[in-house]
Structures are given as C-alpha cells and as structure tokens.
From TrEMBL, chains A, B, C, D, E, F:
The family this protein is said to belong to: Belongs to the UPF0273 family.
PROSITE patterns referenced in this protein's UniProt entry, alphabetically: KAIC (PS51146)
Entry-linked Pfam families: ATPase
Organism: Hyperthermus butylicus (strain DSM 5456 / JCM 9403 / PLM1-5)
Domain KaiC, first and last residues per copy: 4-248
Binding site for ATP: G31, G32, P33, G34, T35, G36, K37, T38
Protein name per Swiss-Prot or TrEMBL: UPF0273 protein Hbut_0418
Amino acid sequence: MPIERVKTGIPGLDEILNGGIPRRNVVLLSGGPGTGKTIMSQQYLWNGLQMGEPGVYVALEEHPVQVRINMAQFGWDVRPYEREGTFAIVDAFTGGIGETAKRERYVVRDPTDVGLLIDVLKEAIRDTGAQRVVIDSVSTLYLTKPSVARSVVMMLKRVLSGLGTTSFLVSQVSVTERGFGGPGVEHAADGIIRLDLDEIDGELKRSLIIWKMRGTKHSMRRHPFEITDKGIIIYANKVLRVTRRGVYEETVSSEES
Amino acid sequence: MPIERVKTGIPGLDEILNGGIPRRNVVLLSGGPGTGKTIMSQQYLWNGLQMGEPGVYVALEEHPVQVRINMAQFGWDVRPYEREGTFAIVDAFTGGIGETAKRERYVVRDPTDVGLLIDVLKEAIRDTGAQRVVIDSVSTLYLTKPSVARSVVMMLKRVLSGLGTTSFLVSQVSVTERGFGGPGVEHAADGIIRLDLDEIDGELKRSLIIWKMRGTKHSMRRHPFEITDKGIIIYANKVLRVTRRGVYEETVSSEES
Amino acid sequence: MPIERVKTGIPGLDEILNGGIPRRNVVLLSGGPGTGKTIMSQQYLWNGLQMGEPGVYVALEEHPVQVRINMAQFGWDVRPYEREGTFAIVDAFTGGIGETAKRERYVVRDPTDVGLLIDVLKEAIRDTGAQRVVIDSVSTLYLTKPSVARSVVMMLKRVLSGLGTTSFLVSQVSVTERGFGGPGVEHAADGIIRLDLDEIDGELKRSLIIWKMRGTKHSMRRHPFEITDKGIIIYANKVLRVTRRGVYEETVSSEES
Amino acid sequence: MPIERVKTGIPGLDEILNGGIPRRNVVLLSGGPGTGKTIMSQQYLWNGLQMGEPGVYVALEEHPVQVRINMAQFGWDVRPYEREGTFAIVDAFTGGIGETAKRERYVVRDPTDVGLLIDVLKEAIRDTGAQRVVIDSVSTLYLTKPSVARSVVMMLKRVLSGLGTTSFLVSQVSVTERGFGGPGVEHAADGIIRLDLDEIDGELKRSLIIWKMRGTKHSMRRHPFEITDKGIIIYANKVLRVTRRGVYEETVSSEES
Amino acid sequence: MPIERVKTGIPGLDEILNGGIPRRNVVLLSGGPGTGKTIMSQQYLWNGLQMGEPGVYVALEEHPVQVRINMAQFGWDVRPYEREGTFAIVDAFTGGIGETAKRERYVVRDPTDVGLLIDVLKEAIRDTGAQRVVIDSVSTLYLTKPSVARSVVMMLKRVLSGLGTTSFLVSQVSVTERGFGGPGVEHAADGIIRLDLDEIDGELKRSLIIWKMRGTKHSMRRHPFEITDKGIIIYANKVLRVTRRGVYEETVSSEES
Amino acid sequence: MPIERVKTGIPGLDEILNGGIPRRNVVLLSGGPGTGKTIMSQQYLWNGLQMGEPGVYVALEEHPVQVRINMAQFGWDVRPYEREGTFAIVDAFTGGIGETAKRERYVVRDPTDVGLLIDVLKEAIRDTGAQRVVIDSVSTLYLTKPSVARSVVMMLKRVLSGLGTTSFLVSQVSVTERGFGGPGVEHAADGIIRLDLDEIDGELKRSLIIWKMRGTKHSMRRHPFEITDKGIIIYANKVLRVTRRGVYEETVSSEES
C-alpha cells in the first residue's frame, strides 16, 4: 500500500520530502526568532487552499486581523476562503476581548485552557473539513509550564491525527538553543523540520534540515532557503556546509539528494 | 558453561555483539529524536517471532493501532501472531479510553501507575510465553519525576530478568544530550546501545555504538547504519570516524571488528 | 499596497532597513551594557520630532531630569517639544517622589504596576499624538519575574501597535548572553535589532545586526557603528567579520548590502 | 616504619601503585557506565581470597544470586569461600523480599537506612575476618540526596578503616561527568582510581589513572587496560595519550613509570 | 556646555578616560579576586584628598583599622584627613562590636540594613563635603539576595549622584565569571571599569578595560597595568592582545589610543 | 615600616612569595582532590615548630590520631610538641565520640556549630601561643550551606588575624572547578594559593600559582612542584606552561621570577 502524501506546495520542500508529508503526520516546525516558521506554516495552508484542501490556522501569538494582513503581504488573501467556509482562523489570542475580536467566529474564550482550545479547534476542523492545520505556536501553550509540554502535544496529536489532518506545530526555541523544544515534545512529533538563521562571518544565512519524518525517506542534508515577497523558496539541489574550513554552498545533483 | 545468546536478527547487529545479546540482559536503547530507536526495537521483536520466540511490546508513546500500522509499513504484520497468542501489545497509552482501545486485550488503565503497568506486563509475558520484551519508552515513566528513574528501571529489571526475557528499554534523550538517560538509569542497565543522528558538514549521518553489554565481548567501534523500507541495516565492517581532519567511513576487516 | 515605513533618521539605519521600519512594528532593541541602546532609542525619537512626528519616552531606568540632560549632551534638547505638547517623558522611575518629580506631567505612581504604566502611556500617546514610542527598558518590567515576560510584552504590543505607533522596546541582556531577552520576548517582537560591543584582540568593537524585521527585506550583515557626540553613525556599506582567521572590516558595494 | 600494602593481584595495578594499596585506605573506584568498576572490585576480592585474605562484598545494585553468577563467568566461584566463612555478600538489594533472598545470611532489611547497612556490614566483617571490602555502589546511597554524600562516605570510612580493612567504594558518575562523584566524596577518600571509556575517532578505548593514593607514590600516567574473560589486565608499561595531534599508545620503560 | 570631569590621579587612567570621570557618574569597578579593585578605589580617594576633594570610603569587607593600615602601606595615611574632617570611613563591617569599633564615628549598626547604611553614608558625605565616594564592596549588599541587586544599586545611585559625588562601586565577580555583576547591576551603572588577572601560558597578567563611561569618549582598548608599592600604574600607550597566535603587549601611539 | 613575614620553610615557596607570607594574613589554600593541600598545610606547621613558632591544626576531615600518623609518614612527629604545649590539634571530627577521642584535649563537641569551633580554637591558640593556624578544611563548614560561606570565613578571619596568627584555610574545590571556593570566600581571603593536578597528554602534572597575597609582591608564574617523602618541593626557577603548542617546563633565571 503506497503511502498517501500531502503536497506542501512550497518550492523545494516536497522534493526534499520525497513527494510530500505522509498524511496524518504531526510535524514540529522548530526554530528561533526570525527564522520564518510562521511564514512557512501559512504558505502551507495557502497552497492547500489552492489545491482544494481546506485548512485551519490557530492564532496564539497574533491578532486574527493581523494574521490576515500578514498573509496578504505575500499575496495570500484568505478572506474569500473564510467566506466560502474552507478556511478558518481560531482566535486563541484575544480571548474575545475587543471590537474586532467580536467578529471572529472561532474564539477560545480562555486561551490558557488547552481543553477549551481543542474543543474550538475540533469544531473548526469539522466545519471547514480541514485537511491541514497549523498551531502557531504550540510553545505558547507550555511556555511557563514545561512539565506539561509532552501531555499537551500528545493531546493535540490525538485530535489532529484522529481527525485525519496533516498538521504543523510551530515550536519556538531560543536563538541559542540547539534542540527542537524539549525531549517530551521532540520525541512525540511524527516529523521535525528545523529552520535556522545563523550568523556566519558577519552574514546571516537561512537554512533548514528535515530531522525526522515518519513514513518516508527524506533529504539528509541542510538546505539553504530564502524568504521572498512570494514566500519561502528552498534550494533542494543545494547544501549549506559549515565546516572547519569555512562555510559554503554546494550544488548537488538530484540523484544524490 | 557457554553463554546463551538471543539473536536480534537485525543485519549486522549480532555480528558486532559477538553472536547476540546474552539472555536475560536488560538493554538500554538510547538516542535522540529521529534516531530509529522504535524501529530497531520493533524489528527485534518481529525477528523473534520469525524464529519462534514470542514477544511483548509495551506502547507508552503511540496508540496500539498506530503501532500495528507503523510496523506493517516495514512488512511486519503482527496481527496473525497476536491472534495465535505469541505476540501482545500492552496498551499503556490510551488508558482504555476510545472505541479502538476497547478492543485491546492488555490495557493499563492508569499509565502513570508503574505498579499497575508491571502487573499487566507480567500477565502478557506469561500468556504469550514471551522471550523478548520492548518498553517504548521507559523515559515516559519518569519524564517529570527524574528522581524515581533508577527505582523504576530497577523494578522493571527485576521483573524482566526474573521472568527470563531479554529486553530493550527505549530511552529518549534530548538531541543535545550526550548521556544515555541519567546516572540512575545508565548504570542499572546490563547493556547500552546508543543510536545517533549527527549533522556533519551539512549532512545527517546515522551511527550506533555498543557502549556496554554484560556477559560478552562486543565491537568497540562506531558503526554506520541505514533505515531502509525493510528496517535497519548496520554496517558491521565499517566504522564512522569523526576526527579533527573531517568525517569518513572506513571499511575494516572482520578480524579487527 | 506598498508598505508604510517610518524613517529612523539614524545615519545608515534606514539604508540597511530598506527604507525604514514598517509602521506599527514593535522592535526589540537588544544588547548588553554599554552597547548604545539608550542613545539609539533617543536618537530615533529626536529625529522623529525633527520630521514632525511626535514621540513618547518611557523612563524606567533614569530620572526624567537626567534623561533630558543626557539627550542634551548630543544636542537633542527636548524641552521645547515638551512645551508645545509633541513630546512627553513618562516617569516610571521616581514613583512621583522627590521635588523635581512633582513637576513631571506623566508619572506612574507605582512603577511595578504594568497596568498602571500602560494607562499613563496611553494618555501620553493620545495627548501628544505620538507616532514613536520608546520603552527604556522593557527588561526592568520583568527582571525579577521572568515568567511574566511574554505577557508583559504582549500587552505592550497590543497597545503600541493598536494606537498606531512604531516603537522601540529596549531589552537589556547580560554581557555574556547571546540571546535577545528570552524566548517569550524575542518571538513576540515584530523586529529585533541587536547591538554588540565585543572585545576582539584587545580592542572593543561596536556592531549591530538586524535579526528580524516583519514586513520588509533588510540587510543580512553585521555592520560596524560608532557613537559620536552627534549620536550613532552606522556604516551601511561595511561589514564586520569575525572569522577563524581574525577580525576585519570589509567595504561592500551597496548592491550587495 | 615501612608502609603495609595490600596486593590487588590485578595484573599491572600493583605495579603502578608501587606495590599495592596502603593498608586501611578507602579507595574510590570511580567511572561512568560500562567502564569495568564492578569487575575490578570483584577481581580485587577474589584475588584476596586466593591469598588467604577474607572479604566482604556489599551488593546495592544487583541481586546476590546474580553477583555470584557474574563473578563465576570470570571463573571466580565464591561459593566455597562463603561456605567456609571467609567471604560474604551483604544483600542490600532485595530488602529480604523473594524466595532466594531468604537464603542470604547478611540482609539489610531497609537498604535506604545507612545506619542499618553499617551494622550488617560490621557483622559480616567480624564474622569473616574480612581484610577487603567492596561497596558497589556507594553512589546508590545518596543518588537522590546529594547533600548527605559526604557524611555517608565519612561514616563508612570510619568503620572500614577502623576495622582494619582496605576497601573499594564503587562510585558511579554519568558518562559526561569529569569529576569523581562530587566534592564531598572525592576529598574524603584516601585514594581515587578513575576508570574511563572514551570514544576516540570512532573507537572505544579503556584506560585508568590513579588520581590520588594516600601513603604511597604511584604512576602519574593514564594506562590502557582490557577486560578479558579472566578479568582486567592493565598495561603498566603503556600510556594512553590523547593530544591535539591524535590519540596513541606509547610503551614506556618501567623506570619512567 | 563642556562636561565637568573628576581627575582620578591614577597614572594612565585619566588619559584613557579622555581627561577623567564625568562628574556625578556612578562607576562599577568590577573584577575577580586579587585584581586590585580595592587598591584602585583607595588610590582614587587618596588622590582626591591631595587635590582638596574630600572623600568617603564605605568599608563592608574589612575592619576600618585594617583599611587604614592597608592604605598606609602604599604611603596613603588618611588619619590627618579624618582629623580635619575631609575624609571618613563608614564602618559597615563591625556592627559597632569590639573595642576599636567604638572609636569609629560612622558606624552602621546593622550592616544588612541597606536603608540604615544609606542614612549613615549621607551623614558622612554631608559632614565631609565629600566629592568622591567608594563602596567596597557593593556585592556584599546582595551576595545572598541577587534579586535585590538592581534596587540596591538604584538606591545608591540616586543618593550618590543626587548629592553630587562621583563614586566607585566595587563589584566582586568570581574568578571564572565574565560579566560585571549581573544584568540588574551592569545596566544601572554610568560606567564600568573591568580589572582582570589572567593566567596566560603560565604567567599572570594584569589588565583593565573601560567597558562604558557615560558622557565621555574613552579608550576602547585593553591596557596592561601594574600594582607597585606606590599604587597602580596603567600603561595608556600599551594594549594587551590575547589572540589565537599568542599574547603580546603592543605599544601604540597616543593618537590611536 | 618593613613588612613582617612568616617563613613557610617549604622549599621554593618563600622564594616565590618574596620572603614569606605577610604576618596576620589569612591564606586560602585551594585545590581539587589529591593536589597536596593537606600536606602543604601540615608542612607549614611543622616548619614553624622547627623555628620555634607554635601552631594549631584544626582537623575537620580526619581523626586526630590519623593526622598524627599521616604527618609522621613525612618524618613530622608532632607528639613531643603537643606534650610541651607548643602544638595542638583541635578535634572537630569525632565530636568526642570513641575511645581515642577521649584522650584529645581540644574537642569540638558539635562540629556543625561554628561558634563552638571558634571558642575551642581560641583556647588552643592562647594555650599554645600559636603563631600559625591551619583549618583543614574550611569548605566542610559550609559544604551543604553555601550561603553562609562568606560569613564563616569572615568570622574566622576576625579571630585568626585578631589573635595575630598567620593562617592557612584549606579550600576544597571539585576536580572540574576552576574557581577557588566561591565569590564570598575568594574575595575575603588575604591570599590565595592554588594547587593544581592536571592530566596533560596522559600524564599528571603538579603545579601551583600564587593568585593573590596582600602586602607583598609575589611570583606571577605557575610553578611545578613535587610531593616527596620529605614533603613538598616547589621549583621556584621553573614555570609550567600549557600553550596551544603543548606543555613544557621552562627554567627561568631568578631575576625574572
């Protein structure tokens, strides 16, 4: 039985994932500040909408109104899809307070209550028939309570995978951390994509690496990427090498990838 | 009196273990996320079934249904063995909640109760006549209570060794940790196999090393391995060297191994 | 829709920001002691006043009287602007105690009460019609309570962005820290500018790097800067490289910048 | 007055100890998992029995039955000596619970009670006339209470030295620790022998170093050793050097040792 | 308005400070044990007395009697100045207990009470008309309560600056610390002078660096210094460079300084 | 007034101390396990007795009987001096419990009571007219209460210096620590002598460095030393250099020392 895959549509990403993300996988999108986690997760949802796959974005870090503005800056206007019922933003940011918040449909009244968040999320998934879900960020749910990190991720995993969605959990790590969000979190995820922004000899370089992805082969290399005004572009045929002799990008033939 | 050994059947592993794991040993299978611990432990059980040795898998991280699906992706369909009573999955994940969980035979109602888990495990071992046991993962049992780690491992060791099984305890360490799971755990185990996934010059490399194995000589080298769609293959005649002058694989004659 | 930008007027900074800071962004100005955070933030406000953009400075580290003296040393005499109502200092330092404090208009009676601080800040923004705000330093608000850091920054962000201002949050990090102020803070900001003072081979070198800036492209290089008696000058066409072979400044053509 | 020495009988060890361990010394045998601490301590006791010196082994990590099996694998069958009353195992593992435990003569009913353990130990020393004692491991006694480490070691030292025995305290350190068991412990011991297992360029290497030994000169070098099926062999005329230019073993003349 | 400066009179220091310390600055004198912090602070006060500027020394680490003896060893006999009322030692060491303590004029009865210390300090400043103050050490005031460090330094700063004095706060850091005394302290000071004592290739080297100094340009280099029997001499025209190729002192022309 | 000095009589030490330790100094003798702290401190006392200077040794780590035996192994038989009343051992080890302890004259009944220890110490100093005191080790007094370290050292300093003695406080640091015993301790001492035992390329090397010594110039170099059967010998005309190019000993002319 061949594995079912979800195409991310992000240039270069499906190629290094050997065709896409295995369906129902819960993928940790892990990185420091400014690495492009939010953009990549929104691009994943937008591309799904273009392919006819409904999606849900859970906003824990930003006002839903701001989320729409930010996405629009890349040409991703989600409002028509919200109107036709194939896209939804779950507002887990405002607590329903404020004028604009009153116009939101999916509101988590108490964003610190994970059980409540899951109830609203389930409703949004069922209403839209979502096949893609993003939670931005999952770290917010246990920032001050690291001991509950594993159980929170486990609960989300059961719901997201159980309802048949393929999801990105945005995981914020500090700029100096080299892990992906703690042992309880990084072992629970089906996949880990790590985004990096490193200063090398006075220049900032962007790269990503697929650390694990259950159910598929994937590139075992660190790939450079760029954030353009159309979104993220990953160079599947390039590898960023940081060695003792310096840093350089090397073009590799696709057979080697 | 020659030592009794259990053949893992994993390509390359028995060779570097000088013939297999000494019977009744409790082996820590330690590694970071994405290193292949779960796959190796399931392959060990499957190979046992092919050799007529019953086994038990304790699922603490994943739904039993998902465990069966994951194993099947490598061609390891355990359902016939479950039906004939030579294989069992102990469900220490669902707590018996959910439709599919109701169909499981070995369920730990409260997965946080180690005493209860041991009772169900004993029952499964006796019912199946298990000679091989996997606990995936033992870290889950003390993730938020590190002070009990040693006593938990000691309790399991008494039961597993006492009932004559040869077992793998999957130990999750963070991607940046270099130990095997803490002093209380790593000294208590009869053997330690460490799986690694390291980024070297922009490429991910898999390797393992036998850190200790009571009762037998073993390879004192770091061996590269691969995860294929048939499971893990270890290169017993290769050594992965990471030196100041770079990283390279070297083929060694078997006499040296 | 082209992005609206706020010109900082700081020599070199707008150039490496591709024209200025996107309006409504909340920018973390992060650095160790002696790196020039306060000077840069005051220069940003002063330049705004010269361009007809009112501003507010929240003083948490220094007496308002001393703030005026310090600014005057660079030729930035804010008193005329305070009189005409286009500039205000919010005194969150004295608690209203002391003779000179009695003459301040915007006083936070209890500087440990963030809610109160926000109320006074809102009043000052509305009275002046401020388009630029500086909070110096935001770290003071959670120095002894790191667990509230994220919520404090989130609250400020809602107010500052909601009222249409473009703001600098001064973030103090220790001289040996390499992050920007903790995960809760650095992920919440729309932009991060890091100021550094490093001893290299017996010499102190100043440099800055734009780590992230939502809504615009920006230089991906580390730029040297100087503190002169007219304020800060950033060398947009130079890059400070610290490599294994030593440290050197290199002039780059503006196309590359 | 020439110093009295206890011959360990371990090949190479007495040579690098300038003739043996000064009588009544309490020696910390410190090392990570898999370094051979237990084997060396058991070999020390067995060799004593061959020279007519009675001994006591305190089992804190392993069932007494398993201790006898493990020793027998090296050809060290202690049962005849137990029968004739010149060797004893103090069972501080089972708490007297279990069928086989009932047959043990020296049982510590509550292994967490150090006072009780010392009482049973004294009795065993007096009954056997023990001149050699091993406590395996002393770390177990304060694993979860590091603040009592020094007082526990001090108490043991008073008894062991007071009764005229020469003893090994097995000290477990984590694989990544470079100390010997904490300041309270390492300063209290009369001697420290450190066993190491290091991965160097993809190969595991065994070595030991005598860090201190009150009352005698000793080798100031790191010596390679091996674990054979007859026990440990130390290469007194070799030194393991790990330098910036690589690792190598060098043979040194005995005069230099 | 040209900036008013206080001449330290310490050979080389005023030169690298571009003429002296800006009046009213509160300067952190930070360094490990044995770096010469106390000597430099006492030399600063003594030189003030020679220029007709009264001073106060707050003794928190040493008996006032011993302070006078130590200063006298460098030829700095403060007793005549104490008699004429232009110098005072505040005894925050003895608590007024002991025969010799009874003869002290400025005694802090409870040295753990910072409010009380400030009251006595104010009195001493007013009585002497002090223009220079040293607190040796400020670290003592929060050694066991790091969370109050910032507020203690802030309180002192208000008093010292408010009364018009130019002061040195001696800050003790551990020999392995690279900061200046914690974020709350190092950001609050107007200036930071760091004294270092480093072992380089088997030799101890003394050097200092002006990390920051509000209101003036200053040397951006690390300068070697010596402690002679006449006090400290700083080599303003030398720089101590510690590079990958070794350590060396280099003489630089004063224009470059 | 020339400074009064106490000759240690330890070969090489007075030479690198420019003639001896300034009278009344309280010197921290700091080092890891096995570095020779106890031997050096006992040699200092013994040499005093040979020069007619009475002394007191406070035993916190070892039974007084064992202290006498250990000293005798170097030919230092203190019993005649104890009989004539010019030497005393303060027993702060046994608590007065045990047969041999009953014969001790200076016993601290409760070794955890620092006030009591100081009372007994004062009595012993007065009875013997001690000019030299050793406390072995001072670390024991605050091992489990680091927050009281500074106040304990301060109390001892007042007594030891007040009674006119010149003293060594033995400070135990862990083998991996690079400080001298914590900030509260290392800043309080008048002098710091650091003893080191380092493994360099497979060989253990002994060396010491005078980190600080109030009231005198001293060698600023790291000197190799040896422990012989006559005690410690320091090579004042040699320096141990550990550089990037390797480790070597270099003979230096005494003028340079």
